[in-house]
């Protein structure tokens, strides 16, 4: 059995609090402004725009803010996308996207509403796209394929605003912004082909990749990335629980339980990645995600690929083909559809290097094990059990030569993937559990610094569906998350200095984001509004830590936020006092980060940043550019709390629990921080991060 998306026409659910998440909204360099600081100017792309048609694409003209608004291009320290949604009535979870000038800014899904209506929010940093945002004459476009009729009554209303924050001494702008290029313009292609952008982006069972041709206007790019937006739908939505084609489950979605994202440049493999198992708000059992939404379900991540070894091709001015695909090792054919879109980010070299030409031809070593094996453990009339394993290693090297100085600039990217999946199927249930692991190392073309990112996606998804003569019963249980560590070695970026020769030369950032959820829904088959059982209990935890070797860094104040920011009006008040269960797992964490108590030094801006955290008192050292990244600046009350552990570790955390549609904040869970730093460095049982979060944290190789 596959996880089931309940039919909105036959399901009756109670009201619940507005959707929330425990993970923070913003990561970025430079530091964000304090929460009480208004943006210098804002540009509204859409204002409560109704989306009530499957093929509707709403558009608006875009003009960047100028001198008259007080924030001309070049003066921005930070640009933030504010996405707000509202829906009321009966509606499925829907997918959607936002573009500006053909560049995708957000891939998203919507929550399933309750009768009285809900609102939700996404706050996303788009500062890295600032060069693109300077352009005039572009169109913004949003589409969320929606059906509104007598049964599905929910009209989705979307507001999208770009907030521009000015640079000042406390919030300097980044040194440079990359050139932004879409691999293809899905909207323009859709208009030309008289179809929808989703058709243009479709990788299907028949055509498992999409491609575009790019000619770069940049001739001196020294670093390059590709952000791949990828979301799975229909029979691919729960791909990790799909049986192989050779199974006896001919009435189920198939294609096996292994998927891999792949980028090719002029036919050569340029990057590989494991997709995160995003679960939408109608997935498995809708009661699981009310009101705590699934991890990344409102902001489906763009997977970042380092394409620096291929920059010689782009710098030449020649047309380059880029192909985006989903593979499964050739074991079986992917079923249904993935929507794929991509954006290139090209960072220019210093002017002194001049034009950068291709050196030695790019070398691709894809000879590492690229095996996917499916082993039938047990196949009977009562049950089928399969184990799937995958492994792949890719190394890409390239070089550039400065036309001005003849300097040779080398780059190397190595990616290793491993996956494991065990799936069990019976007449009434499916159980899929597994783990995806990846490690990527990349070198800086100019300094030789090396960045290593290790990610894990563990998951276990149980779905049980039964019916008898009188009732329909759906039970769902999900435990999954994301875990990551990222390190920078060999004299990485000067994240903080207190004098000559005192730059931080090593850094490690780690965080986790885990969810445990269980739910049951039982209703009458005779009268669909006669509900016997409605139960949902979900917990989400987010924890973050940083270690640096700089022991003379920035110092600030620490304190727990206490009860500030709590919210979540219960639509089911009878359960507000019910004692929620504690998470019994004991995460394994962390050697003590080198964060040393010392004298407190503030600039005026720093004091504002710290006050929001709560009571003041404890001093700590942390490299200044890293510190404000974890400042809980958001429009929703769900914020990171900070606490000081007894062994001087700096711990940022948030723990939310939801029961039957009501949300409850755990504001005293400092014990979890103590346990997370008791042993080895950040080795928890569950979780991982988004690649773009790592990029914003400054742990880039240059």
Topology (elements, then pairings):
Layout: E1 41-51, E2 58-62, E3 76-87, E4 95-100, E5 103-109, E6 118-125, H1 130-133, E7 138-143, E8 156-166, E9 179-182, H2 186-193, H3 197-200, E10 202-204, E11 209-214, E12 221-233, E13 260-265, E14 268-273, E15 302-306, H4 311-315, E16 320-327, E17 337-348, E18 356-358, E19 363-365, E20 371-379, E21 383-402, E22 408-426, E23 429-443, E24 450-467, E25 471-489, E26 507-524, E27 531-548, E28 555-558, H5 604-611, E29 618-621, E30 641-644, E31 650-659, E32 662-665, H6 671-676, H7 691-696
Antiparallel strand pairs: 1-8, 2-7, 3-6, 3-8, 4-5, 4-7, 9-17, 10-17, 11-16, 12-15, 12-17, 13-14, 13-16, 18-21, 19-21, 20-21, 21-22, 22-23, 23-24, 24-25, 25-26, 26-27, 27-31, 28-29, 30-31, 31-32
Domain Peptide N-acetyl-beta-D-glucosaminyl asparaginase amidase A N-terminal: 33-349
Organism: Lotharella globosa
Biased composition (Basic and acidic residues): 599-608
Structure, briefly:
Residues 33-349 form the Peptide N-acetyl-beta-D-glucosaminyl asparaginase amidase A N-terminal domain. The chain is mostly beta strands and 702 residues long.
């Amino acid at each position: 059995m596959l996880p089931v998306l309940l039919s909105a026409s036959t399901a009756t659910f109670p009201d619940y609090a507005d959707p929330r998440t425990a993970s923070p909204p913003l990561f970025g360099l430079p530091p964000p402004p304090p929460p009480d600081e208004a943006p210098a100017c804002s540009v509204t792309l859409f204002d409560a725009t109704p989306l009530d048609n499957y093929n509707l694409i709403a558009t608006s003209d875009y003009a960047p803010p100028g001198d008259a608004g007080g924030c001309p291009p070049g003066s921005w320290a930070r640009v933030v996308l504010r996405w707000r949604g509202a829906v009321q009535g009966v509606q499925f979870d829907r997918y959607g996207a936002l573009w500006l000038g053909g560049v995708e800014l957000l891939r998203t899904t919507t929550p399933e509403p309750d009768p009285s209506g809900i609102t939700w929010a996404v706050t996303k940093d788009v500062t890295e796209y600032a060069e693109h945002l300077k352009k005039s004459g572009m169109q913004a476009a949003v589409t969320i394929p929606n059906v509104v009729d007598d049964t599905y009554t929910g009209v989705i209303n979307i507001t999208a605003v770009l907030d521009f924050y000015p640079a000042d001494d406390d919030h300097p702008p980044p040194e440079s912004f990359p050139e932004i290029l879409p691999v293809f313009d899905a909207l323009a292609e859709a208009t030309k082909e008289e179809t929808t952008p989703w058709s243009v982006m479709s990788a299907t069972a028949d055509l498992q990749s999409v491609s575009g041709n790019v000619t770069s206007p940049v001739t001196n790019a020294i670093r390059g990335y590709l952000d791949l937006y990828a979301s799975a739908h229909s029979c691919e939505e729960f791909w990790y629980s799909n049986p192989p084609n050779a199974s006896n489950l001919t009435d189920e979605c198939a294609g096996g339980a292994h998927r891999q994202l792949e980028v090719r440049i002029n036919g050569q493999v340029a990057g590989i990645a494991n997709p995160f198992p995003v679960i939408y708000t109608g997935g498995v059992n809708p009661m699981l995600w009310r009101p705590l939404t699934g991890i990344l379900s409102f902001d489906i991540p763009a997977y970042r690929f380092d394409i620096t070894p291929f920059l010689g091709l782009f710098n030449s001015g020649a047309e380059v083909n880029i192909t985006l695909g989903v593979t499964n090792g050739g074991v079986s054919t992917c079923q249904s559809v993935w929507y794929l879109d991509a954006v290139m980010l090209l960072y220019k070299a210093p002017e002194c290097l001049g034009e950068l030409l291709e050196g030695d031809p790019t070398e691709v070593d894809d000879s590492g094990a690229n095996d996917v094996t499916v082993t039938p453990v047990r196949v009977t009339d009562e049950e089928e059990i399969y184990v799937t394993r995958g492994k792949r290693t890719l190394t890409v090297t390239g070089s550039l030569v400065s036309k001005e100085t003849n300097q040779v600039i080398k780059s190397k990217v190595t990616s290793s993937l491993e996956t494991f999946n065990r799936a069990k199927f019976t007449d009434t249930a499916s159980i899929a559990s597994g783990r995806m692991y990846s490690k990527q190392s990349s070198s800086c073309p100019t300094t030789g610094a090396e960045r290593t990112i290790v990610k894990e996606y563990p998951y276990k998804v149980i779905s049980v569906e039964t019916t008898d003569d009188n009732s329909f019963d759906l039970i769902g249980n999900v435990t999954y998350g994301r875990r990551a560590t990222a390190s920078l070695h060999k004299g990485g970026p000067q994240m903080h200095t207190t004098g000559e020769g005192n730059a931080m030369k090593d850094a490690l950032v780690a965080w986790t984001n885990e969810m445990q959820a269980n739910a049951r829904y039982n209703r009458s088959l005779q009268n669909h509004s006669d509900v016997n059982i409605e139960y949902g209990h979900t917990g989400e935890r987010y924890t973050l830590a940083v270690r640096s070797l700089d022991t003379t860094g920035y110092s600030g104040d620490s304190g727990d936020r206490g009860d500030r920011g709590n919210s979540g009006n219960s639509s089911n008040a009878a359960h507000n006092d019910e004692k929620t269960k504690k998470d019994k797992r004991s995460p394994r964490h962390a050697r003590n980060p080198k964060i040393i108590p010392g004298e407190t030094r503030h600039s005026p801006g720093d004091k504002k940043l710290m006050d929001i955290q709560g009571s003041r008192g404890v001093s700590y050292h942390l490299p200044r550019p890293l510190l404000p990244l974890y400042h809980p600046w958001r429009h929703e009350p769900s914020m990171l709390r900070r606490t000081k552990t007894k062994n001087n570790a700096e711990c940022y955390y948030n723990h939310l629990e939801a029961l039957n549609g009501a949300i409850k904040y755990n504001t005293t869970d400092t014990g979890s921080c103590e346990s997370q730093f008791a042993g080895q460095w950040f080795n928890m049982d569950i979780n991982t991060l988004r690649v773009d979060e790592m990029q914003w944290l400054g742990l880039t190789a240059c």
